[in-house]
Amino acid sequence: MKTGARALGLAESYVGEAGRSTLAGAVVRADRVVDDFRFSACTIGGTDATETAIDCWDALDRPDVRYVLVAGVALAWYNVLDLDQLHDATDRPVLAVSFEASGGLEDAIREAFDGDAATARLAAYRALPERRAVDVDDDTVYVRSVGCDDPARVVRAFTPEGGRPEPLRVAREAARAADRYRRNPEA
Fold first, then answer.
1. What is the pLDDT of residues 20-49, one digit of tens each?
2. Which of 28, 44, 73, 143 is exposed most, by the fewest CB atoms within 10 A?
3. Sign (positive/negative) of CA torsion 45, 151, 58, 29?
4. What is the architecture of the domain spanning 6-183?
């Protein structure tokens, strides 16, 4: 992959105060150069994560971005992403990357929600593509992808060291910084 290839990394941070979680979008090149940021917020325990991610994409207006990477599939307390909808809206390959082995989220969703809220989240979760392990250096990440023929190649190209792709690492740090500022703008 060329060093100038760009990916949008989307990651969230929640400090537990306002019922909203900060979503940061970071455009990062494969050679680690950071090009742009956008911020938005989605509802804790809501169903608006996909729309919020699409809003970040639209606000960036960056046709040079080739991939969309998302940190996980259940942002902001089981606000489950629709990766197909995100792919359709961006017309880019979408890769959701998680960093721990897991038996899945179905039991946790059932414990956290009842009735229609649980049913909707379980349906969204079950509609996601299968998760596949990808070895990156000495680490393993787990990737779900839509519209990408070789997700392992993309993840490795944007992971210069360690096990976290750089667009996701930068987006996570940006979301955390935005939350810290929101909590205490005078600091």
1. 999 999 999 999 999 999 999 999 999 999
2. 44
3. positive
4. 2-Layer Sandwich (3.30)
